[in-house]
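Work package 3, deliverable 3.1, input record:
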Amino acid sequence: MTAQSATLNGGWADFRAVSGDDAAANTAATDLINILDTIEVPIVVLRCDLMIAGFNKAAADVLRLSLSDIGRASRDISVLAGLPGLEEQCSRVIASGEESQADFRDGDKWFVMRISRYPQGERQVTGAVLTFTNVTAFRECIDQVIYERECAKAILNTVADPIAVLDADQRIHSGNRAFYTLFLELASLRTKLKAILAGTSAFQPVEVDHVFPGEGRRTLILDARPLSLPGHSERRILVTFKDITTRKQTAAASGLRAIAERKEELRRSEAFLAEAQRLSLTGSFYWRVPTDEIAWSEQLYRIFGIDRGALVTPELIGSRVHPEDIPLLHDIIERARGAGTDFECEYRLQMPDQSVKYLHMVAHGTRDEDGRLEYIGAVQDVTARRLSEQALGKAQSELAHVVRATALSALTASIAHEVNQPLSGIITNASTCLRMLAADPPDVAGARETARRTIRDGNRASDVIARVRALFTKKESAIEAVDLNEVTREVMALSLSDLQRNRVVLQLELAEDLPAVTGDRIQLQQVILNLLRNASDAMVDVHDRPRQLLVRTEREDGGRVRVSVRDAGVGVDAHNVDKLLDAFYTTKTDGMGIGLSISRSIIERHHGRLWAEANDGPGATFAFSIPSGPASVPDSAPR
Amino acid sequence: MTDKRSLVSIVDDDESVRESLPDLLRLFGFAAEAFSSAEAFLASDVVSETSCLLLDIAMPGMSGPDLQQELTRRRQTIPIVFITGLVDGSVRPHLLARGAVDCLIKPFSEAALLDAVRAALRRPYSEQVTAT
């Protein structure tokens, strides 16, 4: 480059002047000036009096110097004027020879100004050299780094978990805000960290409990890893903490909750069982046979009326069992002890107040892995059921009695009628006979005839009495072979007048060779009588058709005998058929309604069945069928 | 009593009554006819000649009271003495209220029978007097 423009070129007048005419020196000076002008770093040379001695081209550009500025004081240069204490600094450098630096800014450009002593010749110091190194790019770079660092810091500080960097001695180098907030007291942490990190190269996260002042005990997961810093040989460790106290508490709480829920569930199902046992009056027990170890449920203690928790021994059980049932229970238990099979029995307890409880026991035998016999069983208090069964049986027999009495009263009228007819004949005939004998002459033939009629009527009355005796003199439950045809005929004979009074047209169809059934003759008579009365009553309001009543006996398949009574009455409602047979249900306003119920229970005791059905035409048919032959022995009277 | 023997008719389903009563009544001097049912009596030719009717209450088919009603309907005012084997006395006042002369409960004595029949034979005149 050549110096063509004064403003754009460096100013080196003095240096040329110094060179004089020495051609070689001139060439060297020119070369030097040219080299200086090519250097991009502005260079300004000041004299000892701090006047500008020269400057290179870059200085002319940057500091906006021109040739006319040579010899002017540096403080007069507008660009340099912004550097406070420049002259003092330069003087100091010139005096001491020690370099000095200062930042210098020109617009958006940053420079580092270096002041060094300019030696001319061997000893003489002639001034100072100012060089301006452009550090704009470097500054921008640093700014960027600072910005990035602040960003990183801000991010780290917003992280809720504590993070710290340790130096090689496990001293805290730096930490985020969370770290410093949590670790107010660093000394104990350091001790702990030292202990944890000692000798660990491959670090696995560890859970650490730490008591913090003001925070209390907290649980942290501590993780650590070596930080590799490029260009740094110093070993640092990044330590992160994760506060899992809450999570742990939540987990613990939910764990506790789960346990509590399971407990509650268990408690509930236990309560369920206890309540079910209480309601069903069923207790359960466990019997380990070889050791006679017995465990009872709460309800079983209650059933036995023994304080809950008392040690259950065979003696204790024996103290409650009804004396009459002890042999039975003993027998069952001894058999169970040997066989190991399931057993079931009923026995009674005699309570201290002398009341009696009926218990039903069922037990299931199992063997444990060692082959030892165990029983698990249930004991139900069936007292109420037994008592009501007994009450029912009693009520049933009372009802039967009532029905009988009712039937008896109806029969009494009927019997009286039956007996009075022949009695009437007897008296009339006897009167006639006496009068015939008293006549003059006596009508002996007529008297003989009337006497004969008297005997016949007497026999008739006697027959009636015999039938009545057959009906009433027998005691309950006389089991015998019964010809249902005969029974039907007897009942018919006794009911005839009753039926006639009700203007019933009676029709009998009795099967020939009807097999005998085994049973209670009186009870069966009662049933037939009942069915007849019902049929007769059902036709009381019938006026538009004959009051036809058909009584039929017949053989059924399977060796059964059927007796049916078909009326032409008001009939039965299909819905009421079952109800009709229930005790106390009646469609009659003056009936007791129990007749059919009793009849049914009688027939059922004869292993038969009694039913009602609507006829195709008017009326209904009530019928029963019972097995014939000796198989039809009825059950004993109700318990 | 009367020149012409009064006819006492008997309606009863019981044979011994039908056999025994007519003989006794005849011994007392009445004419007697027995019928086994109300229907048979109505079908006979003695209805209008009957001075007294001995009538059973309970009979198959038409009953005694039914016959009484039927006779009233036919304006046959025959005095009626009911005879019954029923011990139940509750029907008696009912029957008397409907115009029966008497109601004899079987078995009855010949005296009771005679009283009732005589009362019946006296009855029509007084009734006819009041009627005309």
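Helices of chain B lie at 15-27, 38-43, 64-73, 91-97, 110-131.
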